[in-house]
Each structure stands twice: as structure tokens, then as C-alpha cells.
Specification:
heterotrimer; A mainly alpha (291); B mainly alpha (320); C alpha+beta (586); A: 291 residues; mainly alpha; MetI-like fold; 2 domains; 16 helices; 2 strands; 68% helix; B: 320 residues; two-stranded antiparallel ribbon
């Protein structure tokens, strides 16, 4: 199979384009890595562009000495794994049912789902509900309220509508019921979208801090990002009292420690995607099923 | 599997036969579908609709200690206050303009980028490229805005050092109304474009290889294959994503703007959310903030329903 | 439209929640096996997957229920405890253990720390009963008020002692009876607190009904910012310390244009800082104006500072300096809620003057350490406030209200709470909680505080966690060197001229101000920074007062005048009350 000259030219230009793009996109991370490895008293010089200013691991030591980082890791890991699996599975189940136009009440349910994307009762009623369910300071409170997202469900519906209907019908004639079709045909065929939505949900849980704000009073139940936000928050925030902005001075965590904590906390989620990528190239499956 | 596929071609579909069944019959027939629907729906009803009564505080002068039952009802006062505020038009215009720029970019660029990614032949390179261009998504705005301020500052920011080395005069990007929105949109693209490709790549992965084969036999080149095979195949996903993105039509990116703006660019950068934050949330005025939120959601809802209708009128699958 | 759907959702929710709540209480797994058993499933895989996922939801919910049980036991104990305390409110000291929950914002927020145990020991000693301190760590600043409001909204999650910096909710707490009057308990057990806070400070926390519903947590020094200048640059250029505004401007010009660091490059600025007006205090204050506050006028009336005619003169001067390159252009954008950026500019040593923290003169300040490392020969000094054309000069005064305060909520008896707070306010206890044990964690070297542990160890010990609950800014704050302590003392005097001019409102409820000030401040900031950077002509200032009035300034003014007047009456009443109710107990 030969390529025309134009195609060859396009391929090379494309590769070059992505090399440039990668350099640009990786820079902020490089900047943070440099920052985390710098000597904290030298970073103010404004010269932090390509190489660290001085060299020191002390920022990483400081991060790992912080007891709350480890408990944050634990909480976030549990919510992320549980949330991603449960969320993906339940969204897929809902989406499959809702992708069937014949389903009675399909329209109403879809509208109910869409409605939650736009309107919410706000945080006070949500907090009161979780409190009434006796779920404050529990994993349930950090996982369940945000588990179902309208966006994910609609995206999955979009994908599932695109699945070849013939396969399903054939299975039906073979005597399979809807559950069988869902588990044995739809789920395997939907791997790309399952991975995508799974990744979105996982990243959502990984980056979540607001659930801790709302539903955790015990610091042992703080999610990682909450610990992190507290660590890097502007400790000299202006506080408005009686309309007058005044400022409080508190020893601010060094820039290097902020950078190190961000690197440490984001690495685990960054390596998830490369592992999921294999499901994206398996889209060819659909072709083979049909063939 | 092969047998099943062949059978389908000859038999009429089953649900077309049952379409006229009674309600009960239909429900019994689809019992397993309802079973699949149920757990997710229960969660939504409990955790999303359970607290939904909270929207009424937009029509109250809400006091958290009196609760919704005890707070005073004020009708549409909060909305009037919002609409009559001296900057409402300016703020609304800014919101829509910035949001439309971002919408246009976030809709088109990831599609183009994922089409290009899909053309990379070397699988390892493709995976590495994908994994790297989505990195900026993981940097929070708090950190990213710090980097932007450092890099664009008119004294020793890298961008201005380069401008100066080429003999230009430094530009105060963040303090100049001519550049500020561009900074907003470009930094947003930079941060999110790679992430945006993921979903389209998943969609492209679902496109049957046969279609490409057929197109190639017909003599279509790469560009034509993209145009005539890939794009039509992922069109349903694109439509759904565009409709859903309308939900954010009045969200121009609060965090980003809040962290980057300053008095010199209020003219072009003050959006609904930053305005409501300054007026309402800082004063713990929940009713005002809720009213503003309700206004945004109502506009988005109308827009989504309208666009969905239009899409369906053209014979495509909308949201439902 | 949404009301229909919403009510639908709500009725549905009613049933569903009952259903779910029932679920939580019975054997979850069993229920679901039954449920699945009804349905004919021939594929074991399907059954297990669905069952697992459904059971997982319920398990999560159930397990959280379990957690709650153990916790609510503790809370029940606390509750009974509280009531027993409340009944034995007077005289008889309960021998039962006391649990105290308090919200904390300061320090590294280390749970179950050395500092916590030290405090518990001290409290048990002082109160003659076992005391268990249960800190509730608040989230970072941006989410702080959200969390506080949520916790306060229900009695079972309300902390016994609330620390907060937000005043917006305070009157609602008083109105709802959540905040208790502390006066009798303070008289009995609050000697250290009453001794430490001045009569002026307590005025702002006094309710005109003759009650005290809150006590301040941290009252800053009388003035904590100062005019900072590069001494070595002055010497390099052969200049004297500036006294008047003209001299100061000349020094800033020289710092910009005459290569003060002798590196042969035109890379220095005269003045930098953040984009709050405080950074420009040497200019505004020399003219006796504060653009953030109402100011007393010569004729006895009061006026919003940003409207005073002298503002125009200052803005014109600043516009010229900005154009000349004397003002660092980063000032307009580099503040954005990040003090670190300005600290970096300070440390990099390319700017000659700041109006910033006195704390920079403590050798242990990290910005100062950074500056010294990057500029080994550099030296900053603090100078007297710059004199304006009329000879007026002043440093920036603190209002002395305190920026954060404490509420004893209706979940604990006030006697116990005040005893806890008063113990924390004792200098020895405060020093231990803030800095550790002398000899073990730090030593004093000729009056200078020398920590013997790394900052990370200090965080682990929880040092500083209890700061701001009762933060002493006097000699007990041993972190200040004797020189810095002396600087703070001197500032009381140098900030007095502006303290006499600025109106500090006692009232928390300023509805008109709350309603209109956001719009007015926006216009003001756009205008002032526009003029300074040369984007707007100076003459635009002439329209400001008209705009101010149009945007609700009239209502704000009327409200301010009436509040100012009642406040003066209240002050007379307060002074009499203080004499009778506080002085004898000091």
C-alpha cells in the first residue's frame, strides 16, 4: 500500500506538529518539577525558566512528612476507585436502558436527568440531606452524591445509539434477554466509551475537594485535593471585616513545597490514561463482530 | 456471532411488532431495562432531587438559621436586583462573548486535533503524544494562573523578555483590555484542548475499519476519508457534546477570570459569576447568588431545549 | 417549568428516601439477594455483577451508617456531658470529663498533635477535671465560610467554640440564640482575656444590650506595615533618608534611573507592592487620605476617603511616576490574592522601596532569608512615615477590632468555655502552644528566639495550630526580635495621626454599604488604576463623586452618618458599662 507524495508530506508535517505541541504542553509540568527541586530561597530571582535554581529534595521531604497528605491519599484512592467503577457501571446501565426509544417513560427520565445538569438545590439542602442520612464523615458522602452525572449518561447514550443494532437483534432471537445483551454484547462493544467515561469520573473524584468541604468535619476524611488546597492556599488572604480589607500575615509555605506537593499528588492519576489507551485502539472490534 | 449477524438482515425487528402493546405489557417486556435503569435513577432522585427544594431560596431573603420554612418570601426581588444592577448589561455581554469564544474553540479544536492524532501511524508516538498534550488539564487554575502571571508580566516575564529581545516594547497582557480576552481564551484552549480530544478519540475508535477500506478502494485520500468517513461517523457524538456544552453558555470560567483579572480590565472581564461573587457571596447572600444561578440555568435550559428541537427537526438524533 | 418537575421530584424523593433509610437499617445484602431471587436470571455472571454493584452502593451507605453510630455515641456522651455541665453551671466544679470542640484555622492543622495534648494537660490542671480537646480543622480560606455556615446550621454539628473571621453571619447567630453572652463567665474566669484586650477593642465586641457575644481572637499590632527602603542603594548613590514626599519621590527616581545596584543595567524600580491601596500608603497617607475608609473632616462631618479632593493630586503624581517607570508595572496585576508574588519581588532585590510588613525585619522571616541569599550585600531599612506638603505623616493604623473572633455556641456552658479560652490566653500556655518548650524546641539567645527544630517538625508537633484562638501580640510573641518589638511599639505613635482621622464603624449591619459598595469599589478601582497607568486622564476624577452618588453613595453616606452618631452615643454608654462590669474583674 503506497502513499502519495502529498500524503507522505502530510504525515511528516503532522509528526513535526505534534513534537512542537508536546514541547509546549509539557512545559508547565517541567516548570513545576524545576520548582519542586529548587532551593526555596533562590526561586524568587525570576530566572526559573529552564533549569532549577539550586538543587534540593527538601521540598519532597517536607511533603512526605505531612501526615495529612498520606491520609488524603488513602481517602482519595478509595473514592476514586469505588466511584469510577460504580459510576461507570451504573451510568452504562442507565444509558443502555435510555438508549432504547421503545422504553416507556424514556423521555421523562431523560428530562429528569438533563434537569439535574442545570438545576441543583444548592449546598445547604444537600448537606442537610447527607446529615439526615447519617453519612457525614463517611465514604458514602464523598462518593454517592456526585456519582451520577447527566453529562456522562448522555455521552454514553450517544455512543450506544451508534452500536450496530443487528448484533443485538440476533442475540435476542437466540433467546438472550436485555440483561444478557447488556452484559455480553453492549458492555464489551462499548469499551472505548466505558474507558473514557471511567477516566472522566476517576479524574473528577481525584480532583474533588468540595465534597470534603461539605461532608467531612474530621480531617482524617479530607480528600487529597482538600489537603493540598489547604497546603498551598494563600495564607495571607485578604479578609473582609466590616467592609475593610485587611490582611493577615502567616508564614507561607515555600513555592517549592507547593510545587512538590502538586507533582506528588497528580502523578498517580496521570498514569491512569496511558493504561486505558489500549481500549481506544480496540475499536476495530466492532468491525470484527459484524464481519 | 457471524450467524447472528446474518439472521438480523432477514428478520423484522422485534420491537416494531410490539409497538402497539399496552403500557403494562411494555413494562413487563422491558423489565430488565428498568432494572438496569433503577439504581442510577434512585441515586439521582435521592441526591439530586432530594435537595432540589433549595432553589426556592432565590425567591426568599434566606436566613440559614431560620431555614426555608422560616425565611421571608420576597418574590422576584432578588432577580430584579440582579437585572437592575448598573453593570448588568456589561457583565452579561462579557459573559456571553467570552463564553462563545471558548465554546467555539472547545468545540472545533479538539476534533481537529483528534483527527490529526488519529493519523499518526506510530502507535507508541501516538500514545505518548496523547498522554502529553492532556497534561495541562491537571494543573489547577490557582497554579496555572500563577504561571501565566509570571510569564506574561511586563518586567521579566518570559514572553516580554522575548519581545524585548526582538526590539519590541513590553506588553502588559493582563492589564490591557485589547489582550485580556485573548489571554483568557488562549490559556483555556491550552489547558483543555488535549483533554477534549479524549472523547473524540474514543468516538473515532468506534468507527468501523470497513468504512475506511471501502473509501480507500473508491480512491479517497486522507483528507477525503476524514471528511467523508470519520466526521459523519462521529457526528452523533459531536451533536450531543455541542448541545450539552450549551449548559455552560453563561459560565465563562469563574476561577480563571477571578484569578487573572484586575481593575484595569474590568470593562472586558467582569462576568456574571465574578460580579455575583463580589456582590453576593462575599456578603453571604445566598438568595442573591441562587437567583443568579437560577437565571443562568433557565437560559441554558431554554437554549438546550430549543437547539435539541432544531436538531431533531433536521432528522438527527438529539438528546432524546 | 422547573417547579412542576421539582415538586414531582420531591414527592418521589419522599418515598425513595424512606425506602433507602429502611434499607440502611436492615441486612442489606439479604434484601438484595431476595430482590434478585424474584427475578429469573440464568446467567450467574449477570447476577453477580448487578448484585455486586447494587450491594456496593448499599454497603457504602451502610458502612457510613456504621461509622456514624460509633461517632454519635461519642456525641451522645458529649451531649449528656454538656447538659450536666449546664445544670451545674454555678459554683460546683464538675469532676466529669469535659469535651470541647473548637474550629481551628491556623498553623499546619495537624490532628492529634503534641500541642493538643499539651493544651489538654494544661486545661486539666487549670480546671481540675479531665479535658478532651477536639479540634475541627477548617478548610482553606476560599471555602472557609461555606464550611462554617454549614456546621453552624445544625445543632448536632455546631462546634462548642467557633473561630471565624467572617462577621456577616454574626448578628444572625445572636438573633437565633446560637451565640451566648459571656459577660458573667468572663467576670468569673476571664481575667487574662479582660487584661489583654483594651477597652477600645472590647467596644467593638460589646452589644448595646450590655452583653458580650464574642471575644476577639487576634488583634493585630497597632500598625504592622512600614515604609521600607534599600539602605545600600541610598549609600551607593550618596542620598539621605527621605523625610518629605518630595525627597521620597526624588529617591525613588534615583533608584529607578541612576543604576543604584551598579550593575550597568537599567533594571530597577523605585516602588513595588500589591494592587491594594495600602502599597501606595506613602503617597496617600502623606496627604492624610485613606481611600478605603470614611474619614473625619475638619468640620466634624464624615466623608468617604476616595472622594476627597487631595486624591486627585496623589493620582496625578502617581501617574507621572508610572510613566517615568518609577512604579513597578507589575503592581497592577501581581497582587491577585497571592502575596507570594510580591514577596518574590521583594526578595529578588530589584526594587528600592515598599510599604510592607514590619515582620520582614525579623531575621527568621523566609522572604528576608531569601533576599539575603540572593543579595548578600543588600540591606533594607524601615523609615519614618513620609511627610506630606502640610507636614502631615502617618503609618497605616490597624482598626484594633481584631480580624477574627470567637463564639461560644449554645452547645456548651459558658463557664467551661471561658475557662478554656482564658487558660489559652495565659502567656505561658500561649508560648508553649505557639513555639513549644524552651530548651526542647527553642532557646532564647539574648532575647532572640532561636528554634532548635526544623519547621517541618514544628508542624508535626502542631505548633501554631491553636494560634488565633487567643493570639498574644505582646511580649509573649517571642518570635519578634527585641528590635522588631521596639518597632511595633513605635508604630503605635506614628500611626496615631491617621487613627484619629479614620472612622471605624462598630456596626456589622451596614445594609446600604453591603448593597452598593461592590459597584462603587469597582468604579473606583477602574478609575484610580486607570489614571495611575495613564489609560484614563486625571480629569476623569472630577466625575467620580457624581458617579458615586448615582451608584448609591447617597444612601451609603446617610447610613454612615447615622451609624457614626449612634456609635458615639453607644460609646458613652459602653464606657460606663465597662467601668462597672469589667474594671472590677481585671
Amino acid at each position: 500500500m503506497g502513499m502519495t507524495r502529498g500524503e507522505k508530506w502530510f504525515m511528516s508535517a503532522n509528526v513535526l506538529f505534534f513534537i512542537v505541541l508536546m514541547v509546549i504542553m509539557v512545559y508547565p509540568f517541567w516548570y513545576m518539577i524545576m520548582g519542586s527541586l529548587s532551593d526555596s530561597s533562590l526561586t524568587a530571582d525570576g530566572g526559573l525558566f529552564l533549569l532549577p535554581a539550586g538543587f534540593s529534595f527538601s521540598a519532597y521531604l517536607a511533603v512526605f512528612q505531612n501526615v495529612s497528605i498520606l491520609s488524603g491519599f488513602k481517602v482519595t484512592l478509595i473514592t476514586t476507585v469505588a466511584g469510577a467503577f460504580l459510576g461507570t457501571f451504573l451510568s452504562a446501565a442507565m444509558a443502555y436502558a435510555l438508549s432504547k426509544k421503545r422504553l416507556r417513560g424514556q423521555g421523562i427520565v431523560l428530562f429528569l436527568v438533563l434537569f439535574t445538569m442545570l438545576f441543583s438545590g444548592g449546598m445547604i439542602p444537600s448537606y442537610l440531606l447527607v446529615k439526615e442520612l447519617h453519612m457525614v464523615d463517611s465514604y458514602g458522602a464523598l462518593i454517592l452524591p456526585g456519582l451520577m452525572s447527566a453529562w456522562n449518561i448522555f455521552v454514553m447514550i450517544g455512543f450506544m445509539r451508534g452500536l450496530p443494532e443487528e448484533v443485538e437483534e440476533a442475540a435476542k432471537i437466540d433467546g438472550a434477554n436485555d440483561l444478557g445483551i447488556f452484559f455480553r454484547i453492549v458492555l464489551p462493544l462499548s469499551k472505548p466509551v466505558l474507558s473514557t467515561v471511567g477516566l472522566f469520573i476517576a479524574v473528577g473524584y481525584w480532583n474533588d475537594f468540595f465534597s470534603s468541604v461539605l461532608y467531612a468535619t474530621n480531617k482524617d476524611m479530607w480528600q487529597l485535593q482538600m489537603v493540598l488546597k489547604d497546603l498551598i492556599s494563600n495564607t495571607s488572604a485578604a479578609i473582609s471585616q466590616a467592609g475593610i480589607a485587611i490582611s493577615v500575615q502567616q508564614e507561607v509555605n515555600a513555592f517549592t513545597v507547593k510545587m512538590a506537593s502538586i507533582i506528588v499528588s497528580s502523578l498517580p492519576i496521570l498514569i491512569v490514561y496511558p493504561f486505558l489507551q489500549k481500549h481506544f485502539v480496540k475499536g476495530a472490534l466492532i468491525g470484527s463482530v459484524k464481519g | 456471532m457471524e450467524q447472528q449477524a446474518e439472521l438480523v438482515m432477514t428478520k423484522p425487528t422485534r420491537h416494531s411488532l410490539n409497538r402497539k402493546g399496552t403500557l403494562l405489557k411494555d413494562i413487563v417486556r422491558d423489565k430488565y431495562l428498568y432494572l438496569l435503569l433503577l439504581p442510577g435513577l434512585l441515586l439521582i432522585l435521592l441526591f439530586r432531587y432530594g435537595p432540589m427544594y433549595g432553589v426556592v431560596i432565590a425567591f426568599q431573603d434566606y436566613n440559614i438559621y431560620k431555614g426555608i420554612g422560616g425565611s421571608e418570601w420576597v418574590g422576584f426581588d432578588q432577580f430584579q436586583r440582579l437585572f437592575r444592577s448598573p453593570d448588568f448589561t456589561e457583565v452579561l455581554t462579557n459573559t456571553i462573548v467570552i463564553s462563545l469564544y471558548k465554546l467555539a474553540a472547545s468545540f472545533s479544536l479538539p476534533i481537529i486535533l483528534s483527527l490529526l492524532l488519529n493519523e499518526l501511524k506510530n502507535v507508541v508516538f501516538k500514545r505518548i503524544a496523547q498522554s502529553i498534550i492532556y497534561l495541562p488539564h491537571f494543573i489547577s487554575w490557582v497554579i496555572f494562573s500563577g504561571i501565566i502571571i509570571t510569564f506574561l508580566n511586563p518586567v521579566d516575564g518570559m514572553v516580554n523578555v522575548i519581545i524585548r529581545n526582538f526590539g519590541g516594547t513590553p506588553i502588559d497582557f493582563l492589564g490591557d483590555v485589547r489582550y485580556f480576552r485573548s489571554v483568557l481564551v488562549l490559556s483555556d484552549i491550552y489547558k483543555e484542548v488535549g483533554w477534549g480530544t479524549i472523547i473524540y478519540l474514543a468516538a473515532i475508535a468506534g468507527v468501523s475499519a470497513d468504512l475506511y477500506e471501502a473509501a480507500r478502494i473508491d480512491g479517497a485520500n486522507k483528507l477525503k476519508q476524514m471528511w467523508h468517513v470519520t466526521l459523519p461517523a462521529i457526528r452523533p457524538v459531536i451533536i450531543i457534546l455541542v448541545i450539552l456544552s450549551l449548559a455552560n453558555i453563561l459560565e465563562a470560567g469563574f476561577q480563571q477570570i477571578f484569578l487573572l483579572y484586575n481593575a484595569l480590565v474590568y470593562d472586558v472581564a467582569d462576568i456574571l459569576d465574578t460580579y455575583v461573587y463580589r456582590v453576593g457571596i462575599q456578603q453571604a447572600d445566598y438568595s442573591y447568588a441562587t437567583a443568579a444561578g437560577l437565571f443562568k440555568s433557565a437560559v441554558a435550559m431554554i437554549l438546550i431545549l430549543t437547539v435539541n428541537k432544531i436538531v431533531k427537526a433536521t432528522g438527527q438524533d438529539g438528546l432524546w | 417549568m422547573f417547579t412542576i418537575v421539582e415538586s414531582l421530584g420531591y414527592t418521589l424523593f419522599g418515598n425513595v428516601s424512606v425506602f433507602l433509610l429502611k434499607m440502611l437499617k436492615c441486612d442489606v445484602a439479604l434484601t438484595f439477594t431476595n430482590l434478585l431471587g424474584v427475578i429469573d436470571l440464568n446467567k450467574t455472571m449477570q447476577r453477580t455483577m448487578l448484585a455486586v454493584s447494587l450491594a456496593a452502593i448499599m454497603a457504602v451507605a451502610a458502612c457510613s451508617n456504621g461509622n456514624e453510630n460509633t461517632k454519635s455515641d461519642a456525641e451522645n456522651k458529649k451531649a449528656t456531658n454538656t447538659t450536666s455541665n449546664a445544670t451545674s453551671n454555678t459554683e460546683t466544679v464538675s469532676s466529669e470529663p469535659l469535651n470541647v470542640t473548637m474550629t481551628l484555622m491556623a498553623g499546619s492543622k495537624t490532628p492529634d498533635s503534641w500541642a493538643e495534648h499539651t493544651l489538654e494537660e494544661e486545661l486539666s490542671k487549670a480546671m481540675n477535671r479531665k479535658v478532651d480537646v477536639q479540634p475541627i480543622f477548617l478548610p482553606d480560606w476560599s471555602e472557609l465560610n461555606t464550611k462554617i455556615n454549614l456546621m453552624m446550621s445544625a445543632k448536632d454539628t455546631r462546634p462548642n467554640i467557633l473561630w471565624t473571621g467572617d462577621t456577616k453571619e454574626f448578628s444572625k447567630w445572636v438573633e437565633a440564640g446560637i451565640a451566648q453572652d459571656l459577660t458573667p463567665s468572663l467576670q468569673k474566669y476571664g481575667k487574662d482575656i479582660l487584661d489583654y484586650y483594651t477597652q477600645d477593642t472590647m467596644f467593638y465586641h460589646w452589644d448595646k444590650s450590655g452583653k458580650i457575644f464574642r471575644v476577639p481572637g487576634d488583634v493585630p499590632e497597632a500598625s504592622y506595615m512600614t515604609t521600607i527602603l534599600r539602605k545600600d542603594w541610598l549609600d551607593n548613590l550618596g542620598l539621605q533618608e527621605p523625610k518629605t514626599l518630595d525627597e521620597y519621590v526624588n529617591v525613588l527616581r534615583a533608584f529607578t534611573k541612576d543604576d543604584p545596584d551598579k550593575n550597568g543595567k537599567n533594571d530597577t524600580y523605585g516602588l513595588s507592592g500589591d494592587n491594594y491601596y495600602r502599597s501606595l500608603a506613602p503617597f496617600f497617607y502623606a496627604y492624610g487620605i485613606d481611600v478605603e475608609n470614611f474619614m473625619k473632616q475638619d468640620d466634624g462631618s464624615i466623608k468617604f476617603g476616595a472622594l476627597m479632593p487631595q486624591v486627585k493630586t496623589v493620582l496625578e503624581l502617581l501617574q507621572g511616576l508610572y510613566k517615568e517607570g518609577v512604579l513597578d508595572p507589575r503592581m497592577t496585576t501581581s497582587a491577585n490574592n497571592d502575596d507570594g508574588k510580591v514577596n518574590d519581588i521583594f526578595a529578588s532585590g530589584k526594587v528600592g522601596s515598599f510599604y510592607r510588613w514590619v515582620d520582614y525585619f525579623n531575621p527568621g522571616n523566609s522572604t528576608t532569608i531569601s533576599f539575603k541569599k540572593l543579595n548578600p550585600t543588600g540591606q533594607y531599612i524601615s523609615i519614618d512615615p513620609i511627610q506630606g506638603p502640610d507636614g502631615f505623616s502617618s503609618d497605616m493604623p490597624d482598626a484594633q477590632i481584631g480580624w477574627c473572633y470567637l463564639i461560644v455556641t449554645d452547645t456548651i456552658d459558658t463557664d467551661s468555655a471561658v475557662q478554656v479560652l482564658d487558660t489559652m490566653a495565659k502567656p505561658e500556655v500561649f508560648k508553649q502552644l505557639a513555639f513549644g518548650k524552651e530548651g526542647e524546641h527553642y532557646t532564647m539567645n539574648k532575647g532572640e528566639f532561636v528554634p532548635t527544630i526544623q519547621p517541618e517538625e514544628g508542624s508535626k508537633l502542631g505548633l501554631g495550630n491553636f494560634g488565633w484562638i487567643m493570639q498574644r501580640k505582646d511580649a509573649a510573641n517571642i518570635k519578634n526580635t527585641p528590635e522588631v518589638t521596639e518597632m511595633f511599639t513605635k508604630k503605635i505613635e506614628t500611626s496615631q495621626p491617621m487613627r484619629d482621622k479614620i472612622v471605624v464603624f462598630k456596626a456589622i449591619d451596614r445594609p446600604e454599604w453591603d448593597k452598593y459598595s461592590a459597584d462603587i469599589k469597582k468604579v473606583r478601582d477602574e478609575l484610580f488604576w486607570g489614571i495611575i497607568t495613564g489609560k484614563t486622564p486625571v480629569s476623569a476624577f472630577d466625575d467620580f463623586e457624581k458617579q458615586y452618588l448615582k451608584l448609591g453613595g447617597k444612601q451609603i453616606d446617610e447610613e454612615a452618618v447615622s451609624l457614626f452618631n449612634t456609635q458615639q452615643e453607644e460609646r458613652t454608654a459602653y464606657d460606663a458599662w465597662y467601668e462597672a462590669n469589667i474594671v472590677p474583674y481585671k
